[in-house]
Specification:
Strand order of the largest sheet: 5-4-6-7-8-12-11
Strand content: 15-25%
Number of strands: 12
Helix content: 25-40%
Radius of gyration: 18 Å
Number of helices: 7
Shape: globular
Distance between the termini: 27 Å
Length: about 250
């Protein structure tokens, strides 16, 4: 049974500290819903100069899936990306793809957008179900001519498939808070570091020398990429097996 995830977030970036006020927070019980109420004044405080990619002909694709695809969140995230890296529609680096709106409710259509493109890679935010099938098709094509990194944050998709198809999977620790044992409820806390991690991930990807191998060195790459000291490998509670490319970060308290 699909679990109910609640996002709790604040939008005070660690990489861009300008003394802005803490935004109001709303929590929803809807599946993977992330609500951000941010004033225009605070949005202005998050803006910085655009980072130039080494190769202006290459793009970076970002999927806004569950938790990131509401009108309010789209506006906030796209504004932040446009101000820092530029959107493709304005001649910039980032190609944002909104699920389900831009994909006719079919995640497989994402393949048609990225196929044949020599890009800086893909970032998945809240990847929906069947993303793994789409990624398998993407990887089959990439094997023919290119190698690119894929990073997945907070996926709704099945974990093992994400680990197999992505360079790295990044999530926050989740805690069951319900007193009713028949109702399993997870609280996913996204603290103020998320947006700074997203921006640093983009910058890391455009300067990456290639695809990071799924080995012991990957941990150091992801730690540096996210600019965090709380990174640790995910360990499955049932099997006690530790994943080489699934990482957990402590969320906000």
């Amino acid at each position: 049974m699909m679990k109910n995830l609640i996002f709790i977030t604040s939008l005070t970036l660690l990489l861009f500290t300008f003394g802005c006020k803490k935004p109001e927070i709303q929590v929803s019980d809807d599946l993977m819903t992330l609500q951000i109420n941010e004033s225009e004044e605070n949005i202005e405080n998050l803006k910085t100069k655009i980072h130039k990619a080494p190769d202006s002909t290459k793009k970076l694709y970002i999927l806004l899936g569950y938790g990131f695809n509401t009108a309010e969140n789209q506006k906030t995230i796209l504004s932040l990306l446009d101000e820092n890296f530029g959107l493709d529609e304005n001649g910039g680096l980032i190609v944002p793809v909104i699920f389900p709106d831009n994909l006719h409710s079919r995640i497989m259509n994402f393949y048609d957008i990225v196929k044949g493109k020599d890009s800086y890679g893909i970032i998945l935010l809240g990847a929906p179900e069947r993303t793994n099938f789409m990624l398998e098709k993407v990887l089959d094509e990439w094997d023919e001519y290119t190698e690119q990194n894929i990073f997945s944050f907070f996926p709704q998709e099945e974990t093992l498939g994400q680990e197999a198809n992505c360079t790295a999977l990044i999530d926050y620790e989740r805690h069951i808070t319900s007193d009713n044992h028949n109702l399993e409820e997870e609280v996913l806390k996204i603290d103020s570091s998320f947006y700074s991690m997203l921006l640093s991930t983009i910058e890391y990807m455009i300067y990456a020398p290639g695809v990071f191998e799924k080995n012991t060195e990957l941990y150091e790459h992801v730690k540096q990429m996210l600019n965090t000291n709380t990174l640790k490998h995910y360990t499955d509670a049932e099997s006690n097996l530790t994943s080489i490319n699934h990482f957990i970060i402590n969320g906000g308290k």
